[in-house]
Amino acid sequence: MARVRQFLQGASVSKTVRLLRRLVIPAAGLVLLATGLVSAQQPVPTHALGAGPPRAVIELFTSQGCADCPAADALLKTFVDRDDMVALTLPVDYWDYLGWKDTLAGPRNAERQRAYVERFGTGTVFTPQAVVNGTMEVLGSDANEIDRAIRATETALSSSRIPVLFWHFGNTIIIETGGAAPEAEPREATIWLAVVQRKVDVPIKGGENAGKTLTYYNVVRELTPVGVWNGRPATIRLARAAIMRPETEDLIVLIQEAETGPILGAARLMGN
């Protein structure tokens, strides 16, 4: 049975504008532009990856202190290995009181999960929970439920998908987004950048999973809003050195309505 914890109605959720302020740093830091598509006269980029939106973005909220989570963590690996999926692990910290402090968790992951719960109207956060394409939540260890959610949300979002190109050129990371279809309803979306560690092995020395070594895949070490999509094509340039951390390898970009709404576009950039 999944771990269930009552949702706190007053829980705070980080707002895009607040987090964007954290990106305003001196010249050596991030440079944020929304100036249209990259000019054809620019040099050909290296390590380019162009990707249409994947079939699904799967976010797994998990905890090292939850006995029900290892099965979900292992299941996520099957989606990580698929080219048509973006699968992410977001460890949460609210089970730390059970005797083991999650070594990968951060409060922002729990805030993001609570924001989803508030929007879905389910009233509780639990682990393992999978959120598919920002629109459906299911038990993260149930492969059949995840597959059903993928099929349902893929169909529902098919007319809203936004193409994304993602590459790095020298020390600059470039994100290009397409525009909305002419007949589409006006909408605004957050452009998220996730800094990801591909694989982490963690020996657990306390709590419900004591004695086990658990393996996590595509662990989100930082999830930051880097821009706002307003329906028009845009380009964002970011300084690579200001983003990457020593333990991380890959980057994922998400275009998500509001902050925790439907995911309209996504792409990955392999770090090496």
Automatic annotation (TrEMBL):
It comes from the Bacteria. Pfam families: DUF1223. PANTHER family: LIPOPROTEIN LIPID ATTACHMENT SITE-LIKE PROTEIN, PUTATIVE (DUF1223)-RELATED, PTHR36057. This is DUF1223 domain-containing protein.
